[in-house]
Each structure stands twice: as structure tokens, then as C-alpha cells.
Records
---
Amino acid sequence: MDYNSEFRRSIDQRDEFWSEQARQIDWIKAPETVWQAKDNGHGDWFPDGVLNTCDVALDANIRAGRGDQKALIYDSPVTNSQHSYTYNELTEEVARFAGALKARGIGKGDRVIIYMPMIPQAAIAMLACARIGAIHSVVFGGFAAHELAVRIEDAQPKALITASCGIEVTRVIEYKPLVDKAIEQSSHKPDTCVVFQRPQARADMQTGRDLDWNDIMASAEPADPVPVKATDPLYILYTSGTTGKPKGVVRDNGGHAVALKYSMKLVYDANPGDVYWAASDVGWVVGHSYIVYGPLFAGCTTILYEGKPVKTPDAGAFWRVVQDHGVNLLFTAPTAFRAVRKEDPEADQLEKYDVRSLKRIFLAGERLDPPTYEWLREHTGLPILDHWWQTETGWAICCNPVGIEMMETKPGSATVPSPGYNVQIVEMDGSQVPAGSQGQIAVKLPLPPGCMQTVWGDDDRFRRTYLDPIPGYYSSGDGGYIDDDGYVFVMGRTDDVINVAGHRLSTGEMEEVVASHPAIAECCVVGAHDEMRGQIPIGLVLIKDGATIDHDELEEELVEMVRDKIGAIACFRRAMVVERLPKTRSGKILRRVIRQIADGEEYTVPSTIDDPSILEEISEQFRR
Ligand code: COA
Ligand code: AMP
């Protein structure tokens, strides 16, 4: 099968195509209906199918004879430890933890928040929720208490699962005080809080609510997978939008399992027994799809790495992991390799390790800049494959479909639309843009299986954000173009979302925090170009009349506020006091122009600007 005919079939004979893919997973009751329209081109996948996602990930592999194969390898340079689980062992742990949750009254449809570092218990907790039909919502460990509180408020979890600490390069981060603070801030209180105690920091336990992971595991009865409808939610994953309130992306069980299984072959050409490593974090969609679910659906061995690309202990860390575990497929964000390249420009570290097991390197999460692509290509001699996707889609919208046909790579392009995604470049009114010209990247509805169903608790927001802007299409929020050969080039967000070291963040959210400082009259935050992190946020602030505060002191306070409310990962380190902000006559802040000025790019003075001289003032300040 070649790519073009596979792609055409996925669009022209959609139901037949996905029905075939659905047969690649184990169902409790196989679906008869493939896709059912709801409204406006949106719909449900496999609505009458019944399955259990944990069964597909674990038990199905045991049934297929892979019980003694390694399912998960935990590699932790920050604690100097490694541990692996076979499919038999992982299933037993997961079933036991599922039983422990069940014994606390947690079952189908209940929400469970998981706020954990990169330890196997995070994956075990996710799979255990799936086993009993509970909906997990993993919150990235780098988020501060306030962010966690917002998610507790929205998801209303019955239980929260955490660990006593996470370990960063220079410090141990105690999680429990953050969890306690978040629960205190939220009006919703989970009944149960399960804590995995780590020796690097012991958590104080609250009687009645807090339970020790090991204690409840010791007395637990293993639980069997419960049947759930394909359309029942598997998880909620919060992601940044343009407003201060994150969106809870809801993913189903059936479409997710079918799509991820298909993607493991299509995008990565992963086969049972392959060692697959996504160097990311379970708190992000990459971690959900390709540390936990995808590799297990495909019978691979997945690696869960608690460390960084550099400084744990050096820029050879990735190559060391590849060698130690015989990694075949590696997936990470370009920023990780930018960090490696900065510390080891000639890739001397690569020479120290035997990385012959490695077949391909995959990158996503942000634009793969051509210098990073070239560096990797030159030093590894391997195919370096960019692919473009989002939390909302859960798997690649565009990729090099190596599982079907390896296509020529074009630096700067995520290659071609994955089968199932009818990608088009359009104007906001839905009219087509000619090949080579930039526009909004949109996907003609319906979306393929595995994509978001709705926004948790706010279907209106889902429609307003994704379906209403361009009728008949899913609006991706990214801009770009398709060239004459059908290659898709993603040029960046067209909204106020920024990407800092592969972490998706909202400038709107940072603006809310900055604006809450008593001395601030008005502010705006833009994402400026950064060599290593891709983008970093920069604040422009206007001080209230009469407020007297030293500018450096104010900057320090604002930086601390963003760290405290959002987290250190926001990397908000600069707040510049300005006399005025450039606005249109209708009062809209001209963020795009500010960003261009910050990046030292040429800009055209918008005709709608209220007072063009402000732009010169701001340029002057950036130059200083
Ligand atoms: N828990 C708590 N704090 C965290 C954290 C976590 N899980 N992850 C990061 N932080 C903190 C860091 O300690 C740092 O704090 P500091 O300002 O006090 O030093 C801050 O957040 C910024 O973190 P980061 O941007 O990760 O900087 P870094 O210097 O530690 O590492 C990279 C830089 C490029 C090596 C790192 O960002 C990286 O590996 N990125 C890959 C991105 C990725 O995996 N993205 C997922 C999508 S594929
Ligand atoms: P997230 O939801 O955190 O995965 O972030 C999704 C956003 O990251 C997308 O909307 C893009 O802006 C950006 N992104 C992800 N992958 C790529 C890629 N391969 N090329 C360009 N941008 C990307």
C-alpha cells in the first residue's frame, strides 16, 4: 500500500477504512457502527462498541503471549535507579492499584487527578483508572498549586494521586504541600488523596483523607477490567487556550485505542517487541499517547525516563539510555536536542555509546528548526522525522508515514497529512488558499478517531473554539501552508498560545497573573524568540498613576508571582515597564507587532493603530 491510496481511502471510504483499523484491537463487544454524526460535521466513533482500554494495553498482550516481555522500563538518573516490569508484572500492579481505588468507592465515570513526577506509579495510576472506568486527569508536576486548584475545581475529582516529591536537576520539589494548598484553594475537595512516599522527601499525611500508596496496595484485591462504551471518556487533559482558564480536552476510549494503535504503525513503524522511548512527561499529551498508551497498545517496551537531556548528568544522557535499553525509536521535542547541541556541539558524547539499535528519531511539540534537524541528521545519520499534532488530536495530524511509505523529508515541513485528516489551508471564511500561500490550517470534519470529543463540562466552549470559527472544519489554531507536492509547513500559532521548551502555555493566563499586581494598570505578555526554548514570555507593563515602585523590584515581584501561580516552567523572567501600550483605535493591544519588535523583525505599522509613535518607543526599550 502506498501513502496516496491509503490516504484517499481514509477519506473516500472512511467507515470501511476505520472499521478495518478497529479490528486490530481487542473489543469486549466489537462495534457495528463506525461513525455516527452528532451535529455540524462532528460525531462519535464506534458508538456501539464496548472495550476496556487497560485490557487493550495490558491483558491483550498477555493473551498474545507477551507476558514475559518487558512492558515498561523506568530509568531515573536523578535517583540513580532503574527498574523494569514485564507485561505480567505491570498488569498485576495495575490490577492491584485498580482494586485499591475500587475499595475506596471509585468507579466508572469518577474523576481522579494524578499529580506525579516521572515514576512508574504515574503510569500505573493512569492504567488503573482506565481499568475501572474512572476518568483520569494528569496534571504536569511542574505546575504550581494554583494551576492544580483550577483543575480540581473543574474536574471535581473523587480522588487525587500524588507522590511526596519530584526531583529536578538542582532541587527536590515537595509535592504534598502544593497538593494541600491546591485542595485548600479549591471549593471541591477530593475524598481521598493517595501519596506515594519517596525517600528523598517524606510527605506529612492528613488523617482521614490521605492514604499511603504502599499501605493500600498491600491489602488490595486485584480488579478486573470493566466494560466501558467506546464513547465513554478515558481521560481529561487540560491544555492552555487563549483565556486564563485551561480547557479540559476529553478523550474517548474506543476511538483513542484504535487511532493510537494505527499511529504506532503509520507514524513510527513500531512493531511488537520494539523498544520505544518518548522522552517527555506523562503530564503532556505526548506522555499520555506515547509513554503510556500507544507503545503498550502496540506490544512494545516503553521507557519512562526521570531525567533531562542535559545535566543528568550530561549531554550524553539520551545516548546512554538508548544504549542501556536498546532503544529502537526515540521521540522528543526539538528543544531537548537544542539543549544537547548547546552543551555538546560536536556530538562528542554520541561517540561514547553504542546506539546502533536506534532506527529513527521523531520530533514534535514545536517547530523543528532546520539547524537542529541538520545537526541531528549529520551526527546520527538516521532519519529525523518531524510530525505535527496537538493535545486536542492526540496523534499526528501530519507525519512522514514511514509505516506505509517513507517519503522524502523537507526540512521545515511536518510532511503530509496522516490518513484520516483532511488538512486544508483556508481563510477564516472557509475559502481555500492557493498552494504555497499561508492561511489557517484546518481539518475538514469529521476528525478521525482519537481526537477530542469535547471540552470537559463546557461543550459550548468546544464548539466556539474549534468548530464555529470555520464552519465545516476543525480550527487548529496554527497557521501555515501546503506546497505543490502536498507537504504541510506549520508556521506557528495564530492565537495567544506560546510554546516554551515544548510546553504549551497561554499568554492570557500570564497576563491575568501580572494584572493582579496592585501596581499594574495594564499589561500584555508576548512570546519572544529564544535560542534554546523556542519562545519565552516577555511582559510589558504599565504602572498605575501614583504608584511608586522601583522597576527592578516590580519585575522581581511579577516573576515570583508567575512562578507561584503558574509554575517555574512558564520561564517568565522579564517584565518591562512601558509608558503606553500600542493599540488599535478600538482598544485592542497589537500583540503581533510587539512580538515582531521583540524578535527584531521588520514590521509594518498597522493602519488601525491609535498612535504609531508608541512602536518606536517600545523598539527603543527593547534595544536597551
Ligand atoms: N516539576 C517541577 N518543576 C519543573 C518540572 C517538573 N516536572 N519541569 C521543569 N521544572 C522547572 C525547572 O526546574 C526549572 O526551574 P528553575 O527556573 O527553578 O530552574 C523551570 O521549571 C524551567 O524548566 P525547563 O524549561 O524544563 O528548564 P530546564 O533548564 O530544567 O531544562 C530543557 C531545559 C530544554 C532541557 C527541558 O525543558 C526539556 O527537556 N524540554 C523537553 C520538553 C518536553 O519534553 N516537552 C514535552 C512535549 S514533547
Ligand atoms: P500541545 O497541545 O502541547 O501538543 O501543543 C500543540 C502545539 O504545538 C501546536 O498547535 C503547534 O503550535 C505546536 N506544534 C506541535 N508539533 C509541532 C510541529 N511538528 N511543528 C510545528 N509546531 C508544532
---
Amino acid sequence: MSEPRLRPPTVIAIDGPAGSGKSTVGRALAERLDLTYLDTGAMYRAVAFAAIRQGLDPSDEEPVVAISKALDIKVDDTGVFVGGVDATVEIRGPEVTRAVSMVASYPGVREEMRTRQRIWAAERGGGVIEGRDIGTVVFPDAVLKVYLTASVETRASRRVQEMSDMHYDDVAADIARRDAQDSGRADSPLAEASDAVFLDTTELGVLEVVEQIANLVEEKLGDS
Ligand code: CDP
């Protein structure tokens, strides 16, 4: 009897800057392809949430890294749970949003989250995974890598529509600051993988983007 072949997880990696539509597109794509979906940004937000809740200064690297190693984080269709607390709403709030890029710049935090993301994919045989470093670092062998972007103005307007209590100028400033911090960090910065498909969604609706990516996935999987 031949040995069962171990198949690497089938990952569709979606990366891009804040507000580029990764979450909306990723969720819809996963549903359409009947795959599971992981929002890795929610994991970094969970670490920032826990640090703030424990009274830590997010700029204090060592204790923040220590927290991340032991933290119980659950991200699924029902929400985001941190140490058993439902943090679904709070992780999107201004306090966590202000702190998250600092927390996500720590190599110790990133190493821990990368390990968890790889375990998540191995347990499920893959899925649609979105973030900043998924195609470049976490899953360099992803079946398909997509880099989604849009103009800063479009990204800020989309975010204001999602969060009705936010002002455009504040959101645009936050996005510009996080873009710079996420692209400028030393460990796994936001970057387009050399073999990624680049999609500017400024003029595209969600359905159109999902359709384009689903076609690319079908082409890729048909080839393999
Ligand atoms: O939804 P939004 O685009 O605002 O951001 P997010 O995907 O929730 O990610 C929040 C933050 O987590 C980003 O600004 C990055 O600092 C960090 N992040 C990261 O460093 N690596 C990832 N794979 C995902 C998110």
C-alpha cells in the first residue's frame, strides 16, 4: 500500500493596506468557494486589545510579546474572543486601532501569530487568509496571491461608511499612518509578493473583485 501523500494546505492569500476591501472580499470569496476564512488582522488587534486591557503601554515591547505568547485568541464566523471575552466590537475601536501597528511591529508577536496562522491552515487544509504578509512570508507557497489596493481617498471613504461614528479626516489620517508603519517595519512589512496578482479596487465593486479572484482560483486549481 502506498503511503498517503501529505498535501500542503491550499491557501489563497489576500494582502493589502487598510481599507482595501480585503475582509469583505475575503469573506465573500471564501463563501463562494466553500472555504474557511481567516482575518489575521483580527489576531494582531486581539493582542493590542489584551495589552490595553491589562494596562500595558503598547510601546513596551517585552511585556506585550509575553502576553501574545500566552493569549487565548479565537477568531471565527461568530466573532473575535480574547481570553474568553467577546472583543468583536472593541478590537475595531479607535484605541485598539491606534495601538495595533505598533504591537504588530514586534518580531516576537509576529512569530507567535505566524505559527498560529500556519497551524490554523494545516488543521483545515487551507482557506482564504488575509493580512499584510500572507503571500510574502506566512504562506509563500499559496496557490494564489492577491494584492488588493485602492486610493487612500477610496479606502478612507469605505471605512467611514462601515464605521458611521468616524470622521473622514481622522480615518484618512489613521490609514496613512498605519500604511507607513506597516510598510516601514523591519519584520514582514506590508508588501506585494513578486508573484501576486495586483488588483486596484478603486473603481471596482465587491462582486466584481470576488468574481475576478474566483476565476483566477479556478484557473490555478484546474492547472494543478
Ligand atoms: O481592517 P484594516 O485594514 O483596518 O486592518 P486589519 O487587517 O484589521 O489589521 C490591523 C493591523 O494589524 C494592521 O494595520 C497591521 O499593523 C497589522 N497586521 C499585520 O501586521 N499583519 C497582518 N498579517 C495583518 C494585520
